[in-house]
Specification:
The protein is α+β, with helices and mostly antiparallel strands. It is built from eight helices and 20 strands. It folds into two domains: 2-167 and 361-376, Diaminopimelate Epimerase, Chain A, domain 1 (Roll), CATH 3.10.310; 184-345, Diaminopimelate Epimerase, Chain A, domain 1 (Roll). The protein has helices spanning 20-24, 33-41, 96-108, 209-212, 227-240, 297-307, 313-318, 373-376; strands at residues 2-10, 13-19, 61-67, 75-82, 89-90, 117-125, 131-138, 149-151, 154-166, 184-188, 191-200, 202-208, 256-262, 266-267, 273-274, 281-287, 290-291, 328-334, 337-345, 351-369.
Length: 378
C-alpha cells in the first residue's frame, strides 16, 4: 500500500510528516496509526532496512498533521517516536525539532498562508495539549525553500525558524513539578540519587552529573557504563511522576533523562574544545536508549524551566535563576556545541515562554510503499 509522506530536517532531527487525510486511508483510527508507522519505517529491524527509518533515535521520528482552521491552533499534530529493532511506536512524547519542521511544512503547503514579513504557525501537540508557535520568515509573502541558518549538531543550512514553547506547563502530569518539590530522591539500582523532575516541553528527570558518576569534561563516549543507571532513573521517575502505573512496562521515550553539571571546558562529540565561558550549564541527555548527539528541544525547555527553580539540580549547576520580569538567555553546552534558550518570565517571576532558534529544510516528498507487517518479521 502507498502512503504519501514529506521528509524534513528540523534542527538536528529528521522527521517524516504525514497529512492526516493520507494516513486515514490506511489507519482510520488513532489506535491504527502505530502499526502503520512501524511498518512504514521498518521498525522491527534494528537497521530499519525495509522502511524509511534512519536507524537512529533522531532519524526515526514521524508526525501526523491535521489542519484546524478556526481553532485555538492552526494545526494539531501527533508526534511518534518509532522503535528501532522494536515494532512499537511511542506516542506519549513530543519533539521540538520536528515541530520546527512542521512549522515550515505548514507554510510551504499552505496550511497557514504566508504573510508579509514573518508568518506565525500555532501548533497543538495532541497528546499533551501543549501549544507551540513557530515563526518562519516570509518577506513579501514569499514562501522560503532554503535558507542560511545553521544549528549546532549540523553543518547544513536551512530556513531559520524561531520555535516557542508557551506556558502553562505541566501538560502531561498536571504540574510543572509533578511532586511539588524541586528535588526528590530516586532509588536507582540500590543507590539514592537526587533528581529534579519537571514537566515542561516534555516530562524530564535531571540528575547532577557527578552524583550519577558521569564525567562531562568529555562528551565523546557512549556512556555504556552508566546507561543502566540512567535507564533505571527514567523508569523510577516515570512512576513517581505518574506517567505509568506499576504494572506498565517502562517507556523508552518519556520521561526524558539527563545529567547536568556547571560550566566547564569540555570536549564536544566532534573533538573540538568548548570553553567554560561559552555556556552556563553542561547537559547530556539520553534519546531512547542511547546518548543524544545534541539535545532535544523539549529537553532544552525542561532544562530552561528547571534552571528557573531555586535549589533544582539545574539551578544549582547554572547559577541564579532570572529575576521577575527580566528575560534571560540560558546557554546550554551539549555534545554538539552550545545552544541558547530565551527564557521569558512574567511579573511574578514565573516562566511564560521559552524560545529556541532552529533551522529546517524540506528534503523530499515520496509515496512510501509500506510492506505488510508479516513481511517485516520474516
Amino acid at each position: 500500500m502507498g502512503l504519501r509522506g514529506h521528509w524534513y530536517r528540523g534542527g538536528t532531527s529528521k522527521c517524516w510528516l504525514f497529512d492526516a487525510r493520507d494516513v486515514a486511508l490506511h489507519a482510520p483510527t488513532r489506535e491504527d496509526i502505530p502499526a502503520l508507522l512501524s511498518a512504514a519505517f521498518g521498525a522491527a529491524d534494528a537497521r530499519q532496512l525495509d522502511g524509511v527509518g534512519g536507524g537512529t533515535s533522531t532519524t526515526s521520528k514521524a508526525a501526523v498533521i491535521w489542519a484546524t482552521p478556526g481553532a485555538e491552533a492552526d494545526l494539531d499534530y501527533l508526534f511518534a517516536q518509532v522503535g528501532i529493532g522494536d515494532p512499537t511506536v511511542e506516542l506519549g512524547s513530543n519533539c521540538g525539532n520536528c515541530a520546527t519542521a512542521i512549522a515550515l511544512f505548514a507554510v510551504q503547503t499552505g496550511i497557514v498562508p504566508a504573510r508579509d514579513g514573518m508568518t506565525k504557525v500555532r501548533m497543538r501537540h495532541v497528546t499533551s495539549g501543549a501549544v507551540l508557535s513557530g515563526a518562519v520568515p516570509t518577506p513579501g509573502g514569499h514562501i522560503p525553500k532554503s535558507g542560511l541558518a545553521r544549528v549546532p549538531g549540523s553543518s547544513a543550512a536551512g530556513v531559520p525558524v524561531s520555535l516557542s514553547f508557551h506556558g502553562p506547563w505541566g501538560q502531561n502530569t498536571g504540574a510543572l513539578l509533578p511532586t511539588g518539590n524541586p528535588v526528590d530522591q530516586l532509588q536507582v539500582n540500590g543507590r539514592t540519587l537526587a533528581a529534579t523532575m519537571v514537566d515542561a516541553g516534555a516530562p524530564a528527570v535531571l540528575l547532577a552529573a557527578d552524583q550519577a558518576g558521569v564525567d562531562l569534561s568529555s562528551m565523546t563516549d557512549n556512556l555504556a557504563a552508566r546507561l543502566p543507571d540512567l535507564i533505571a532513573a527514567r523508569a523510577s521517575a516515570g512512576l513517581i511522576m505518574g506517567l505509568r502505573k506499576p504494572e506498565d512496562p517502562p517507556q523508552n521515550a518519556v520521561p526524558k533523562v539527563g545529567v547536568v553539571a556547571p560550566a566547564g571546558d569540555y570536549i564536544a562529540a566532534d573533538g573540538t574544545t568548548i570553553t567554560a565561558g561559552s555556556h552556563d550549564v553542561r547537559v547530556r541527555m539520553l534519546s531512547m536508549l542511547a546518548p543524544h548527539p545534541a539535545i532535544g528541544l523539549t529537553s532544552a525547555v525542561a532544562v530552561a524551566l528547571a534552571a528557573s527553580l531555586p535549589s533544582s539540580a539545574v539551578a544549582n549547576a547554572a547559577g541564579q535563576p532570572p529575576t521577575a520580569g527580566s528575560p534571560r538567555v540560558l546557554r546550554i553546552g551539549t555534545p554538539a556545541g552550545v545552544i541558547t534558550a530565551d527564557i521569558i518570565t512574567d511579573d511574578t517571576g514565573a516562566v511564560s515562554e521559552v524560545a529556541l532558534h532552529r533551522a529546517a529544510r524540506h528534503i523530499a516528498t515520496a509515496d512510501i510503499d509500506v510492506a505488510p507487517a508479516a513481511e517485516l518479521s520474516a
